[in-house]
Amino acid sequence: MVRPPPPLYRNTTASVYINQGGIETNYPRVGFKWAFEAEVEAFLAAVIDGESYVSGAEDSANDLKIVEDIARRAAQASSF
Description:
80 residues; alpha+beta; 2 helices; 16% strand
């Protein structure tokens, strides 16, 4: 189970709990890292060290399509 922090908490990570046979284990939090910082580090490692990059062009194209759909629907809703 993943328990996210309350919505207004800033820079707080979620807690991960695994229940096995009635015993709940809380996995310790790792150091907090800003998502954009982690993405840039992964991209640079891919370019400089030749490591594989998790987020490919297809994922980015899908993300843009979703954002464009949201923007289009918001514009349509506000025109009524």
